Amino acid sequence: MPDLPVPPPLPESPLPPLDKAGLLTLWEKMLLIRRVEEMAAKAYTERKILGFCHLYIGQESVAVGAAAACRPEDRWVTGYREHGQAIAKGVSPRAMMAELFGKATGTTKGLGGSMHIFDKSVHFMGGYGIVGAQCALGTGVAWSLKHLKTDAVCLCWFGDGAANQGAFFEAMCLAQLYKLPIVFVCENNFYAMGTAIDRQSALTDMSLRGLGVGMVREQFEGFDVEQVRQRMSAAIEYARAGNGPVILEVVTYRHRGHSMSDPAKYRKPGELEEKKKSDPVHLTEARLRDLGAGDAELEAIRDRVEIAAKDAYEFADASPIPDPADLYNYTYAPSGS
Ligand SMILES: Cc1ncc(C[n+]2csc(CCOP(=O)(O)OP(=O)(O)O)c2C)c(N)n1
Ligand SMILES: [Mg+2]
Question: Which residue has a Cα nearest atom 3 of ligand 1?
Answer without folding.
Answer: 131
